[in-house]
């Protein structure tokens, strides 16, 4: 067919429906984004209350096959960002990091070993690599609980 293309009323309707659907999805995305922003703000505000208190914290990172090697760095980054909201030091927040897949692996435990600085923590967590394996969350959480039992008296856990 040569010459200018004429639009049919049905084609215009489809275009209008597509635009309305796109606007609807965009509006939902904005609403979800705003809700996420509110949730993150509450999370940050809660963590900030503990910034200068005595805390014993075990970060438990899932490195099972369901997470995958491509997504594991996001867990490490989340852990780093969360720790930056606290005061990682021997006097305030002492941390341990456990990863799990088929088996638990303790990468470091500054809860029972007297603490570390933020710089030390950030340096150590960068060295954690992905191993894969099955998902044994229950065992990892039980192990984390055992580590916390060896923590300081009076510290938040």
Task: Characterise the protein shown here.
With 157 residues, the protein is α+β, with helices and mostly antiparallel strands. It folds into two domains: 42 residues; 96 residues, 3-Layer(aba) Sandwich (Rossmann fold). It contains four helices and three strands, in the order αβαββαα. It has a three-stranded mixed β-sheet, sandwiched between helices. A hairpin with a 3-residue loop joins strand 2 and strand 3. The chain is globular.
Strands of the largest sheet, in order across it? Answer: 1-2-3
Quaternary:
single chain
Q: Into how many domains do the coordinates divide?
A: 2
Q: Return the average pLDDT rounded to an integer.
A: 82
CATH architecture of the largest domain: 3-Layer(aba) Sandwich
Ranges where pLDDT stays below 50 over 5 or more residues in a row are 1-7
């Amino acid at each position: 067919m040569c010459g200018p293309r004429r639009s049919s009323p049905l084609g215009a309707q489809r275009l209008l429906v597509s635009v309305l659907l796109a606007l609807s999805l965009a509006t939902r995305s904005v609403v979800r984004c705003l809700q996420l922003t509110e949730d993150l703000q509450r999370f940050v505000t809660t963590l900030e209350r503990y910034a200068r208190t005595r805390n014993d914290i075990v970060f438990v990172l899932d490195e099972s096959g369901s997470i995958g090697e491509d997504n594991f760095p996001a867990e490490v980054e989340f852990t780093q960002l969360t720790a930056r909201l606290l005061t990682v030091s021997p006097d305030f927040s002492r941390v341990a990091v456990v990863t799990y897949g088929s088996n638990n692996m303790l990468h470091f435990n500054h809860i029972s070993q007297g603490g570390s600085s933020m710089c030390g923590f950030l340096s150590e967590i960068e060295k954690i690599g992905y191993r894969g394996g099955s998902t044994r969350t229950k065992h990892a959480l039980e192990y984390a609980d055992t580590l916390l039992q060896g923590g300081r008296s009076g510290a938040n856990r």
